[in-house]
Amino acid sequence: MTFEIYEHGLSSIGKLHFRSMRQSGEEWAIALWTLGFCLILCGISLFGIADSKRGVELVEVDYQAHGMDVFSHYATHAIYGDVGHLVLRDSGESSAQVTLSILDQMTETLLDDKDETDYSQFGNVPRKQEGGSKYSRDVSSGPRHITITGHSEASYLRSSPRHVIFSCLEPAKEGGRTPLHDLDIVLETLTKLAPWLVEELQAVGVEYFKNYPLENTYRANLWEFRGVEVYRSWAHLFPDLTHTDIDEFFDSQNMTSTWQDDGSLTVSWKQSAFALHPDSQKMVFFNQLFAMNGRYWDAHGGFEKIPLMERPMHTRLGNGREITDHEYEALEQSFEAARVSFEWQKNDILLVDNFRFAHSRDPYEGHRKCVVLNGEPIPVPQVPA
């Protein structure tokens, strides 16, 4: 038989294979000792991984056999408990519509009569509502061969969701995991690798840039990768609005809009690199300095000759300093050190405390359909004066 162990800090699954064959007593003793050691080390329980620092906590439940109170309990446990995340796996054969209904009901419970915010207007890829669901939005767009780097949802905006819920209605043929990254470990590792960067971020925060091209120009066409719209023109984002209307909108968001000579629009703003956790009031590493940096686009191809500042999005420190290649690599290593992952199965539900865990997406092959739901918006501090 095969045991799958989801290990902290590893991209792939470690597998222990035990063959049915005659072994000597000594060989069996060694095999049993090894298995016992691995079970203790990895914290495996009947439901999955018990120790969230070493893996993903997973619970199997029959979606159709249980009432909403069961799902509300799990949702509350995942978001407000000690773990900060949870994977629910359907032990039955529920349809996608049943899963979407559960997702909507869990979101209603977690919102607790508060308004949900649609962050897709500022997002990097379009998100459309899925299958008649009130809250679920399709996040299947974007190039499948690209790793979407670790980030906390909407941490670059004035408010960010208290939690995020993901569900994979149709897993990819291969790849396509949604790894989690413990923000405490990210900060701990970055402090060891680049302590000066952490100190500077605490003092000046992050400056963000987003470039929206003019439709049907070279840049707009470049940003459409293999027929998949990975970034939108300003006319697509703001149909029927004039330049003045758009300027007024971004000004209302404390953002600066600048129209370039080629007709493209650049929007910039500054934000703190840290936030207080809504419950513990602990200071957490909460930004997208890494995920939105222009170097991210290197993997897409075709951007090599385009300056970082002119790519779809870019970041630098709040004092205007560009981060170095070494600092970017330190950020990458910090998120990788904090990574845990699992293999999606059909209709899995992943609940995440957005202020404790960042998330990413692995490259994949074949068709993949996943949705996301956002929780209560929490104010995020602006960069210190």
Number of strands: 26
Second CATH tier, the architecture of the domain at 185-334: 4-Layer Sandwich
Largest sheet, in brief, is: 6 strands, mixed
Outline the low-pLDDT stretches. 1-53
The fold-level CATH name of the domain at 185-334 is: Double-stranded beta-helix
CATH class call of the domain at 185-334:
Alpha Beta
Task: Give a written overview of the molecule.
The protein is an alpha+beta fold and 385 residues long. Among the domains are: 42 residues, no CATH class; 150 residues, Clavaminate synthase-like (Double-stranded beta-helix), CATH 3.60.130. It contains 9 helices and 26 strands. The chain has a 6-stranded mixed sheet with strand order 5-6-22-10-25-7, with helices on one face. Strand 16 and strand 17 form a beta hairpin. Helix 2 crosses helix 3, helix 4 packs across helix 5 and helix 4 runs antiparallel to helix 9. It is globular, with a radius of gyration of 22 Å. The N terminus is likely disordered.
